[in-house]
């Protein structure tokens, strides 16, 4: 039996195109354009790119607001 070892080194991209940023957020491009408040970086040649750190911050904020809404609804239900 022949065996082989494959060593891969993958570097995650920090700066993404609009399509990549939308997919990174799990969204279709059109929905990303409507919903995402993250401002892109404009390169000197005019290209727009999104920073994954900024996208992560936005997504974490969405998650936090959902957690707070769930907690508030839970408290209201218990008070009834």
Q: Could you characterize the architecture of this molecule?
A:
Strands 1-3-2 form a three-stranded antiparallel sheet. Strand 2 (41-42) and strand 3 (48-51) form a beta hairpin. It has one domain (15-79). The chain contains three helices and three strands. The chain is mainly α and 80 residues long. Helix 1 crosses helix 2 (29-35).
Summarize the entry for a quick read.
The protein has 80 residues and is mainly alpha-helical. Helix content is 52%, strand content 10%.
Overall 3D shape: flat
Q: How many DSSP E strands?
A: 3
Class based on secondary structure composition and strand pairing: mainly alpha
Helix amount: 40-55%
Quaternary status: single chain
Rg measurement, Å: 20 Å
Question: How much of the sequence is in beta strands?
Answer: 5-15%
Termini gap = 68 Å
Q: How many distinct folded domains? A: 1
Helix count, per DSSP?
3
Q: The biggest beta sheet, please?
A: 3 strands, antiparallel
List the secondary-structure elements in sequence, H or E.
Answer: EHHEEH
- Given as residue ranges, the uncertain stretches (5+ residues, pLDDT < 50) are none
Mean pLDDT: 87
Strand order of the largest sheet: 1-3-2
Topology record:
Layout: E1 15-16, H1 18-24, H2 29-35, E2 41-42, E3 48-51, H3 52-79
Antiparallel strand pairs: 1-3, 2-3
Helix pairs in contact: 1-2
